[in-house]
From TrEMBL:
Transmembrane segments: none annotated. Residues 9-467 form the Aldehyde dehydrogenase domain. Homotetramer. Pfam families: Aldedh. This is Aldehyde dehydrogenase. Belongs to the aldehyde dehydrogenase family. GO terms for molecular function: oxidoreductase activity, acting on the aldehyde or oxo group of donors, NAD or NADP as acceptor. Keywords: Oxidoreductase.
C-alpha cells in the first residue's frame, strides 16, 4: 500500500503492515464537518480545562504516563505493525512518549508572569494565559513521540487539542489518546480526527477558530499549511525535516563514530528527520572508517520488526521505498557516487510482501549530488571525504535544510568552531539523534519554524497579557 492510498470507501482508511501487507486496522475518513464539530467541542471544553489547577493537570499527565508504561508492550506491537520499525525501537518510542508527558507534568504551571511597580503606571503585571484550541498534524515516521511532543505542552498549559494522525499510522496515536481518557482527561480536551491531509489537515489549517497549529512533515506540505494558517492568523510551529551532516575529524574515536553513523542512519529505517543523512570524513581516516561502517551495516538484520533479532524493518511504504531507490539509481547513473553495499530491493521470499530496502552505503559521493542536498528518507548513507574543517563545515551547510548536525572530535578548538558555525537547530558533539525532553527542538532554513520540546514549547502555547493598575 502506498502512503497516499485512497480510502477503501468514503468512510474509512485501512492500515496495512509494511512488512507483509497484512491488514492491521482501519480508521474513519474524517470530513470538514468532523473538524468543525471538534473545534466547537474543544472551545466548550477549554472553558473549564483552562481553569483547572495546573497541579490537577499534572496529576492526569503523570497517571497517563504510568498507564502508557503499563501498556508499553501492546502499544509497541501495534506501532511496529502499522509503521514497520523493530519492536525494540517501538518500545523506546512508547517509553519516550511517557517520558515527555512526565516532563510536562513536572513543569506544568512553572512558567509564571511578571510584576513591577511604577510611580507613573502603578502595578505592572504580565500574566500568561493559554491560547485556546490548538491543533497538530502528525506524520507516520515517529507518530508516537511526535504526538507526545505536541500534546504534552498543550495539555499542561490548559489548552485543548485536536490531533490529525497520518492515514498510514494512526492506530497507536488513537490507542494513546485512549490511555489519556482512561485516567480522566476529558475526550473533549484531546480529540483525534482521522482522515487525509488534503481533507482533515487542510480543514484544520484553514479553520479560523484554531489558535495554533503544529505540523511535522514535508517542506511543500508545511508551506501550504503555513499559508492557510497565516490567512487565519494562527501561531505555527513547522518541523519540516533535515539533511543532517556528520563530520568525522581525524582525532575522532573511530569505533564510536562508525557505530554512531550506522545507528544514526539506519535507525527507523532511515526515516527520521534528524537521522544522519550525509557523512564527511577526514581524508586521513576515510578508508578505515568506511570499512568499519560497511562491516556494521552489513551485519544489520533486516526483516519484520516483530521478529526477535531484527535491527531494521521495512521502509514505511512502497512509494517511499521507490523514491529512495530512484535517488540511489540516479546517483549511480550520473556517476555521482558508488554503491559500496546494498542499493537494492531484496527479492527473496521473506521480503516479497513488504516494502524492504537493504542498508545502503554510497561512497565518494559528489557533494552536489541530490542525495547530498535533499532529504533522503530511507536507509541510505552517503559518505565523502574532506581535507580541512572549513571545507567540512561549508559542505555541511550547503543544503537548504538546517535541522541537526554533529561533529566527532575531542579537539576543543574544532568543537568551539563547529558548534558556532554549523547552521542547524541542534548540534551534537560525539553523538547524534539524541533529544531529551528538556531541550528545544526545531530547525533553521527550510527545516522549519519555531521550537517544540522543553520549557520553550510552553512559551508558544501561552500568551502574555499586560495588566496596568493605577492605584
Ligand atoms: P506529508 O507532509 O504529506 O505528510 C505529513 C502529514 O501531513 C500527514 O499527516 C499528512 O496526511 C498531512 N498532510 C498531507 N497533505 C496535507 C495538506 N494539504 N494539509 C494539511 N496536512 C496535510 O509527508 P509524506 O508522508 O508525503 O512524506 C513525504 C516526505 O516528507 C518524506 O519523504 C520526508 O522527506 C518528509 N517527511 C518528513 C518528516 C519529518 O519528520 N520532518 C515526517 C514525514 C515526512 P496524510 O495522512 O494524508 O498523509
Amino acid at each position: 500500500m502506498t502512503s497516499k492510498q485512497a480510502p477503501m470507501n468514503q468512510e474509512s482508511y485501512e492500515v496495512y503492515n509494511p512488512a507483509d501487507g497484512s491488514l492491521v486496522g482501519s480508521v474513519p475518513a474524517g470530513t470538514p464537518d468532523d473538524v468543525n464539530n471538534a473545534v466547537s467541542t474543544a472551545w466548550e471544553a477549554f472553558r473549564s480545562w483552562s481553569q483547572t489547577d495546573p497541579l490537577d493537570r499534572s496529576k492526569l499527565l503523570f497517571s497517563a504516563a504510568q498507564l502508557v508504561r503499563a501498556d508499553q508492550k501492546d502499544l509497541a506491537r501495534l506501532l511496529t505493525r502499522e509503521q514497520g520499525k523493530p519492536l525494540r525501537e517501538s518500545m523506546n518510542e512508547v517509553a519516550g512518549f511517557a517520558r515527555v508527558l512526565e516532563y510536562y507534568a513536572s513543569i506544568s504551571g512553572t512558567l509564571k508572569g511578571d510584576y513591577g511597580l511604577s510611580k507613573t503606571y502603578g502595578h505592572m503585571m504580565v500574566v500568561r494565559q493559554p491560547l485556546g484550541v490548538c491543533a497538530a498534524i502528525i506524520p507516520w515516521n515517529m507518530p508516537v513521540l511526535i504526538m507526545g511532543w505536541k500534546i504534552g505542552p498543550v495539555l499542561a498549559t490548559g489548552n485543548t487539542m485536536i490531533v490529525k494522525p497520518s492515514t498510514t499510522a494512526p492506530l497507536t496515536c488513537k490507542a494513546l489518546a485512549g490511555c489519556l481518557y482512561r485516567v480522566g482527561v476529558p475526550e473533549s480536551v484531546l480529540q483525534l480526527v482521522t482522515g487525509s491531509g488534503e481533507v482533515v489537515g487542510e480543514a484544520l489549517a484553514r479553520h479560523p477558530d484554531i489558535k495554533s497549529l503544529s505540523f511535522t512533515g514535508a517542506v511543500p506540505t508545511g508551506i501550504q499549511v503555513a499559508e492557510h494558517a497565516a490567512k487565519t492568523l494562527k501561531k505555527t510551529i513547522l518541523e519540516l525535516g533535515g539533511s543532517d551532516a556528520m563530520i568525522v575529524c581525524k582525532d575522532a574515536d573511530l569505533e564510536a563514530a562508525a557505530k554512531g553513523a550506522v545507528s544514526g542512519r539506519f535507525f527507523n529505517c532511515g526515516q527520521t528527520c534528524t537521522a544522519i543523512k550525509r557523512v564527511f570524513v577526514d581524508t586521513s581516516i576515510y578508508a578505515p572508517f568506511v570499512r568499519r561502517v560497511r562491516e556494521l551495516a552489513d551485519a544489520l538484520q533486516v526483516g519484520n520488526g516483530l521478529l526477535a533479532g531484527v535491527d531494521m524493518g521495512p521502509v514505511h511504504s512502497k512509494r517511499q521505498r521507490d523514491t529512495v531507490h530512484s535517488l540511489v539509481q540516479e546517483t549511480v547513473d550520473n556517476r555521482l557516487g558508488t554503491v559500496l553495499s546494498g542499493g537494492k530491493i531484496p527479492d527473496s521470499d521473506p521480503y516479497a510482501m513488504g516494502s524492504f530496502y537493504l542498508p545502503t552505503i554510497l561512497t565518494d559521493v559528489d557533494p552536489d549530488a541530490p542525495v547530498m542536498r535533499e532529504e533522503v528518507f530511507g536507509p541510505v548513507l552517503p559518505i565523502s571525504e574532506f581535507d580541512s574543517i572549513s571545507d567540512a563545515i561549508e559542505r555541511a551547510n550547503a543544503t537548504r535544510f538546517g535541522l541537526g548536525a554533529s561533529v566527532w572530535t575531542h579537539d576543543m578548538r574544532t568543537i568551539s568552531r563547529a558548534t558556532q558555525e554549523l547552521d542547524a537547530g541542534i548540534v551534537w558533539v560525539n553523538q547524534h539523534l539524541r533529544i531529551p525532553p528538556e531541550v528545544p527542538f526545531g530547525g533553521v532554513k527550510s527545516s522549519g519554524l519555531g521550537r517544540e520540546n522543553g520549557r520553550y514549547a510552553l512559551f508558544h502555547y501561552l500568551e502574555e497579557k499586560t495588566i496596568l493598575i493605577h492605584p
